[in-house]
């Protein structure tokens, strides 16, 4: 069946841009003196310790070893996802990552331990995604889909991956590694969670691939006995290969019936530092890494016993380096291959496939898609509804000693020029936002304030009106005190206290003017000789929302862009999707660009909605050029995306993303002048906050929206330039971190 398909889908139908076939090398994989370390300082973990490995081209190599001995690390080095600290690797005759290797790329099929599948894709879409990365033709992908469905007993190809059982998903993952018919298959535990019948058929297929098609297969498994079907078995322990031989030879030499027993024998010898013939076949090395806690089923307990019997688990010195040096020369390990700059340049067809994937993922998750747009609208609505409004229903205790009903001193609604109960007349001018609650005396009012029943006490003396009447000639201190309105405030809430204070002062001005008018005087004669005329910019009563709106809009767009891109990439990282894509030949720069592109369209939509809401629903004016305001906001969104990219390349899990996003938000926006003017900061801090990514842009947007300024003003073009500088700086930083992490991860 397989042959039929391969014949019918011959070369012209298949891969358009496969890497050139490697000729003249009889090794599928050759590794010499590989060392790999994780961490630094005291936390250093030596995972590979001078490991040597030889995999014949066209053979199946079963890599066995306890959990944590470094198998996955070794495989990730083979596919070019990690670099060695020292030592050398040749894959299909070339260094992984070199121009002609096709690894990472179409020459390798990599099945990581994680599922590494897009849950919202169908099986067919999954194959088409990876097929697109390899630039395969649709007819070939379709035929492979049909063939592998039968071979691996896959559900119908239009089933969504997330709806499949665990075992079915693993088979799809296996199919993804196989379907483009790579030269080299690297399979990290492909048979986990697969039933025995299917496991049998998978191994048969692997044998067929190697025997009939000359493909090289490296497979790790915890089911040691199934590895009997491999041509060579490598038994790995603590970052070294204990032995490398055919299963038959191993069983014969030890006169044992199971490979599991052979493995235990090797572990025992390793721990006992016995130099055996078998051990001398490979170059074994030095120190042990960390403790290996779990091992494969069946050998777990025995491995533990072995370790328990050993006083000193460190390992042997090497033996077979002379044999290897010949191999190294023959295989050209010493000649470093250059990494062509062109090969890391983004490739248009892969970019297109990645961008399409991003859009498809967004549309498939319709809930998330809607939330992506609704959250910014919701946030701006909440901010507009809750911030900047005047507080209402504020209870104030009124202690009016003028009132004495026993002698007829009661409040009236008098509006004429009569000096009578002026305290009551003043209170009529106090804003309705204040609820006036009469109290008998000042101490009761203050006690009510202490209990939180009122926001303060307004006290009028018994002779308030009389002293007010005498004001023209009242120069004695007691007259002045007598006409005072004494206010005791609960100033625990600075905003509320400030409002009440303003309303009481305003009420006094209105009261005096009205009284003077009723007495035939010019009302302005009682006004303060300080007048605020029409403002240069803004309005006399500019609401707080207008001050806050520019910062708020930037904050919403910036943080949404940051979180979305960081979360998307880190989730792909966590699920192994990123590793699989990179092993398929996708460049990290392509992943970054494709994410920037697809997230940009989302951000444009979010920006449009926020501007519509702010301008049309919440009536925030934009006195300047609207296009300029949108540009400044979008640039800040891109800054947020670049920050998100940086967070994604630094963090390996969502906890890190959440932590860094939260840590980033507060300083950027609170110090950036979104809620409080930065003029309120100390001199040094005020200059320092301009180094934050959003401070200048918020000022620029505020100047455009409220002052109507344009790009000719330094504040405005400064905001644009600072955003551009941050974008470039963050992208460069991303690339540096990526290079650093590739070399040191
Ligand atoms: N990114 C990393 N940073 C630090 N240590 C790591 C990292 N990845 C793996 N390790 C450590 O390296 C050692 C080898 O891990 P690796 O995943 O290669 O083992 P393995 O043989 O594949 O195990 P298993 O069979 O359980 O998958 C382990 O001790 C692991 O904790």
TrEMBL record:
Transmembrane regions: 366-387, 547-571, 592-620, 626-650, 657-678, 714-738
One Pfam family recorded for the sequence: ABC2_membrane_3
Polar residues bias locations: 307-329
Localization per Swiss-Prot or TrEMBL: Membrane
InterPro entries per record: AAA+_ATPase, ABC2_TM, ABC2_TM_bact-type, ABC_transporter-like_ATP-bd, ABC_transporter-like_CS, P-loop_NTPase
Chain coiled-coil ranges: none
Keyword Disulfide bond tagged: no
ABC transporter domain segment(s): 29-263
Superkingdom: Eukaryota
Residue ranges, annotated region (Disordered): 303-329
Start and end residues of each ABC transmembrane type-2 domain: 514-741
Membrane topology: Multi-pass membrane protein
Record keyword Transmembrane present: yes
One annotated Gene Ontology cellular component of this protein: membrane
Keyword terms, alphabetized: ATP-binding, Membrane, Nucleotide-binding, Transmembrane, Transmembrane helix
GO molecular function per UniProt: ABC-type transporter activity; ATP binding; ATP hydrolysis activity
Protein name per Swiss-Prot or TrEMBL: ABC protein
